[in-house]
């Protein structure tokens, strides 16, 4: 990205001093860390590769972005997994030893669908939780936007929205569902989204999506927070 757009433009876009910007980790090579049944073309990275790539990213972040704690950073796994990294004890310990602040890997639903629901198939609310070694998992809720753009090779099990109006309507419904649930259980409900600037560019030509969903969220009393802020909330 720096090679394509220049350091100044990238640093302006990813201002690490802004409250709305968080520098996290998504691997260096985009290798998955756990097998995905619907993606036999993807081979998981081994522990050595994961550690090496984390250090590569640390060096790059320290070189280009100062003023933010980038060593103790969050880690969103490439592509994501159903049930996150549950049962992957060695992998979880590897990430904990790297001083990962939190993990966001629980990004899929039944049959590895890209559309994890707010209420799981077992009737539980999909919210942040901790693994046995204490690491915090911050799951995603709702469509991964690679389904909107059509860039994902994963088989889809439902029909996703196909244009900006349908996508905005979808997010409105998601926010309302969370708001109603929050009022019912009398506590905050966290919605973690999976959105890629590249994929958003396919269906949002005038860059209006984020201001519109922010306005919609705030109209029902919701607010935006980085994953890091959510992690701090659960640490307190």
UniProtKB/TrEMBL annotation:
SUPFAM superfamilies: Glycoside hydrolase/deacetylase (SSF88713)
Superkingdom of source: Archaea
Provenance organism: Marine Group III euryarchaeote CG-Epi6
InterPro entries tied to this protein: Glyco_hydro/deAcase_b/a-brl
Lineage: Archaea, Methanobacteriati, Thermoplasmatota, Thermoplasmata, Candidatus Thermoprofundales
Name of the protein in its database record: NodB homology domain-containing protein
Swiss-Prot/TrEMBL GO biological process terms: carbohydrate metabolic process
């Amino acid at each position: 990205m720096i090679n394509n757009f220049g350091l100044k433009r990238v640093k302006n876009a990813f201002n690490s001093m802004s409250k709305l910007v968080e520098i996290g980790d998504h691997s260096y090579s985009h290798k998955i860390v756990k097998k995905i049944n619907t993606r036999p073309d993807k081979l998981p990275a081994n522990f050595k590769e994961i550690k090496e790539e984390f250090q590569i990213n640390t060096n790059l972040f320290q070189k280009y972005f100062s003023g933010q704690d980038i060593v103790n950073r969050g880690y969103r796994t490439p592509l994501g997994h159903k049930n996150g990294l549950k049962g992957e004890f060695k992998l979880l310990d590897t990430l904990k030893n790297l001083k990962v602040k939190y993990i966001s890997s629980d990004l899929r639903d039944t049959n590895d669908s890209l559309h994890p629901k707010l209420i799981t198939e077992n009737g539980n609310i999909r919210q942040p939780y901790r693994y046995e070694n204490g690491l915090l998992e911050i799951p995603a809720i709702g469509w991964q936007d690679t389904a909107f753009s059509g860039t994902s090779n994963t088989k889809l099990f439902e029909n996703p929205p196909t244009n900006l109006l349908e996508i905005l309507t979808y997010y409105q419904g998601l926010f309302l569902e969370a708001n109603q649930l929050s009022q019912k259980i009398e506590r905050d409900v966290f919605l973690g989204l999976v959105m890629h600037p590249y994929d958003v560019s396919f269906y949002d030509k005038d860059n209006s999506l984020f201001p519109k969903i922010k306005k919609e969220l705030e109209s029902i009393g919701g607010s935006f927070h980085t994953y890091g802020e959510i992690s701090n909330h659960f640490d307190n």
